[in-house]
Design brief:
336 residues, alpha/beta, TIM Barrel, twelve-stranded mixed sheet, 11 helices, 17% strand, binds S-adenosylmethionine, binds iron/sulfur cluster
Length: 336
């Protein structure tokens, strides 16, 4: 059965956050000052087990979900994550399983395990190749070379169409845009520049820090001749261009929002479902899963909540005077 929301949008993708923990402290996501040694992350018993994740995904797959993205926090911190992948792979409706990771924990062995378990694609996050800036932004002691090693391990294991996400903040890493494109020239990897987004409340988002799509294009056009490409499919979040080195993309949630085709639902590690990245409201699925509710009653619940969905936050944020004070879920919690 295919279900649609109030704007006739189908449900096609689920992003599953498998942990709220991370080995980085990116300033735009988990600022160190907040996520310090006193911060209370979820206990193991509070987060969904693989069995619970599979149960929800199976129900959602019967409504049209075809794509799953594993995220976090850092998904590679979740022990035996490849076992979750191999169980997801058995759901016949699921056509594509991907992961977003900061990559530093992707050893050769783990990359092979994930590939053999059926993971289709990996997106790596990398905000600068310059180590000083990399460490400042990521709030970690790792080097950008550790991420590059993770990418190399993914390639060795046979992953193709690797994407590299770079969050761009004005006057912080705009100088890294060209080096990043140059580095990945001819590599087959697709760099995607992401406008700094006002997810959550702790990253002190200010629109003056956002380098918007048009500015990014200006910078790139001074170095490369570029050509706009057709989208691969309707709900694709990145706009695409070709350049001498291959392809790059821009995710412009702030300056050119894409709510019209948004087909995504998000499941947090502790089992809350969100119908929008910026929603204040969530739905407690864990309680249902841990009660005696049958699959069909959980199905009816999910059906109702998608039918009632009318989210289009990115299209309306600038009209709302209160966009800064609305309480929203943090990125490391909701999973991006
Ligand atoms: N830890 C993994 C990683 O960084 O790839 C997965 C989780 S992370 C929350 C998912 C994606 O969200 C990353 O590509 C990250 O760069 C992006 N992200 C986090 N906070 C953001 C923000 N405020 N604006 C734009 N993108 C953000
Ligand atoms: Fe961790 Fe990813 Fe957030 Fe950075 S963006 S702090 S790597 S969850
Ligand atoms: Fe989807 Fe919400 Fe983002 Fe719009 S703002 S694209 S509805 S997640």
């Amino acid at each position: 059965m295919i279900i649609t929301d109030k704007f006739s949008r189908k449900l096609r993708d689920i992003r599953i956050s498998v942990t709220d923990r991370c080995n980085f402290r990116c300033s735009y996501c988990m600022p160190k000052e907040i996520y310090d040694s006193n911060y209370k992350f979820f206990k193991k018993s509070e987060i969904l087990s693989f069995e619970e994740i599979i149960r929800v995904t199976k129900i959602l797959a019967s409504f049209g979900v075809k794509k799953v993205r594993l995220t976090g926090g850092e998904p590679l911190l979740r022990k035996n994550i490849h076992l979750l992948v191999s169980e997801l792979k058995k759901i016949k409706e699921i056509q594509d399983i991907s992961m977003t990771s900061n990559g530093v924990l992707l050893s050769e062995k783990r990359a092979e395990l994930l590939k053999d378990s059926g993971l289709n694609r990996i997106t790596f996050s990398l905000d600068s190749l310059n180590d000083k800036r990399f460490q400042e932004i990521s709030g970690s002691k790792y080097s950008s070379k550790d991420v590059l090693e993770g990418i190399a391990n993914a390639k060795k294991a046979g992953f193709e169409n690797i994407k590299i996400n770079m969050v761009v903040k004005k006057n912080i890493n705009d100088n890294d845009i060209i080096p990043m494109l140059e580095y990945f020239e001819g590599s087959g990897c697709i760099v995607r520049f992401i406008e700094f987004m006002d997810v959550g409340n702790v990253n002190l988002w200010d629109k003056r820090d956002v380098l918007i799509l048009d500015d990014i294009i200006d910078i790139i056009s001074k170095r490369y001749s570029i050509k706009s490409l057709q989208g691969n499919y309707k709900s694709e979040v990145a706009k695409r261009w070709s350049y001498a080195g291959g392809e790059f993309g821009i995710i412009s949630s702030i300056s050119k929002p894409f709510c019209g085709e948004c087909s995504r639902v998000r499941l947090t590690a502790e089992g809350k479902l969100f119908t929008c990245l910026f929603a204040s409201r969530s739905y407690d699925i864990k309680n249902l899963l841990r009660s005696s509710e049958s699959d069909s009653s959980i199905s009816n619940y999910l059906l109702d909540l998608w039918s009632e969905r009318d989210d289009r936050y990115s299209e309306t944020r600038m009209n709302q005077d209160d966009y800064k004070i609305i309480k929203k879920a943090e990125m490391s919690y909701i999973g991006g």
